[in-house]
């Protein structure tokens, strides 16, 4: 068991209270915006990885994103300006959570080959397989040793958060990026 934090739209939290759990509900996701819709394949790949690695089903939903540090909502960028949100502090079982290195997640989002070789992926399979390194903490930490100007930051995903797993709720209104 570990403590995590997630920021959510207040309406997503309202729906969670009605459902008895919070999940990656597409009604509150980022893919309503056309610019963000181009990232859908990466999120689908991540959902498949989550299901394979945890043996837990998402049932067509997106995973819920988590951090191991509380988000600084004062810096903004979580919701549209003026929208209400919540930061949930949750305690989750280790087997339900998948860890990924945040910087390498950008490789999947942008369809970049995750390699420190100076070449392109030779196939779609090699490209997608390269992204799996983001789940390998040892590999990620070894890169920091080899390239000291880099660092690591980990995010976590889970299929759902049951109401009894919520330890604290902090409300906020999105102020915009500061």
Automatic annotation (TrEMBL):
- An example of a Pfam family matching this protein is DUF3841
Sorted alphabetically, which InterPro entries does this protein's record hold?
DUF3841
The organism sits in which domain of life?
Bacteria
Identification of the protein by name: DUF3841 domain-containing protein
Look up and give the organism this protein is from.
Answer: Exiguobacterium marinum
């Amino acid at each position: 068991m570990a403590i995590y934090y997630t920021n959510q739209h207040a309406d997503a939290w309202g729906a969670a209270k009605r459902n008895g759990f919070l999940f990656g509900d597409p009604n509150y996701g980022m893919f309503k915006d056309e610019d963000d819709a181009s990232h859908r394949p990466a999120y689908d790949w991540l959902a498949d990885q989550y299901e394979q690695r945890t043996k837990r089903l998402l049932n067509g939903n997106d995973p819920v994103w988590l951090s191991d540090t509380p988000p600084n909502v004062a810096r903004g960028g979580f919701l549209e300006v003026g929208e209400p949100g919540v930061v949930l502090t949750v305690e989750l079982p280790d087997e339900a959570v998948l860890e990924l290195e945040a910087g390498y997640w950008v490789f999947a989002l942008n369809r970049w080959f995750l390699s420190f070789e100076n070449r392109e992926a030779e196939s779609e399979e090699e490209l997608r397989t390269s992204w799996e390194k983001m789940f390998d903490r040892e590999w990620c930490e070894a890169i920091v040793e080899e390239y000291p100007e880099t660092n690591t930051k980990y995010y976590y995903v889970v299929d759902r958060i049951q109401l009894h797993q919520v330890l604290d709720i902090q409300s906020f209104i999105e102020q915009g990026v500061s």
